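User: Could you write out the 3D structure of this protein bound to zinc ion? I've included everything you need below.
Assistant: Certainly. Input first, then the structure.
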Amino acid sequence: MIIDAHYHLVAEEWYPEGWWQTVTNMYLNGMKALGMEMPMETIRESLIPSLWDPKGEALIRDMDAGGIDKTVLLAMDYWLLYGEPKGPIEVQLKAYADFQSKYPDRIIAFATVDPRRPNAVELVERAIKEWGLKGLNLYPQTGFFVNEPATYKVLEKASQLGVPVVCHTGQQGPAPFRAKYGNPIHLDDVVQDFPNLMVTAGHMAFGWHEQLFYLASLKYNLVTDISAWQDVSKFNYRKFCQVLRQALDRLGANRVLFGTDNPFVAALMSTKEYVDLIRDLPQNAPEEMTFTEAEVTAILGDNAARILSLNS
Ligand SMILES: [Zn+2]
């Protein structure tokens, strides 16, 4: 089974305009760094709308093309940082729930909330109990710590409802996001204070990956995903293999999950290409590194299936 454990279904109206400007600037600067040029207007008017897929039709096509059995959708809440989008958070969460109901065998949709919202706990409870969402996604880089009291109230609810949590981690976030909130060290409190909660540190904590791997090595309810490392895997394959090997050695092969962060990085590498790159590690990795078929199977889907209780 192949599971993309980190995907964001997006629509224009679920996100504030400021966010689309942020993505436009990220693409502009990312392309410049690669020696490519595209006018800002072309990015904003053509590339950005190509990400919008409110009914998930493009996602299902992409899953079929890439041989992905199931995709975990992570909703996003940037409202408090950027201002209100046209479609408030409830609209996005209900759309996620509807899409999951339409494809119950293929889609696993997670709720999200900025814990600083006055109704954060109620919203999480409603999204999971009433609308049937299967987990909780947090994006602390909007300005909160995962171990602060407001977040703990939301985590208590997730723990009580028995759903897994994904927490975006890492230093790689454009302004106005603040990297300090994404330091994985703050998860140390969370995984100890909520021993029954399964927590995924998204993106192998870009830039703090070693800290994450050491932290997680003896914290068994902390796992990680390899989403948005496609640029490293494409332009510095040896480095990617080294980091992944380190993750597997510290956490064990059963706590590293495949994920893409698409649609945001699909222009750089398709979902299928990333799956193939992982699948081919046993053959293609540099000589001094060994990856086994069993590790590949675990990363590509078995680990996520276990964490999401799909085997029971
Ligand atoms: Zn993400």
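The longest helix spans residues 17-33.
User: Perfect, thank you.
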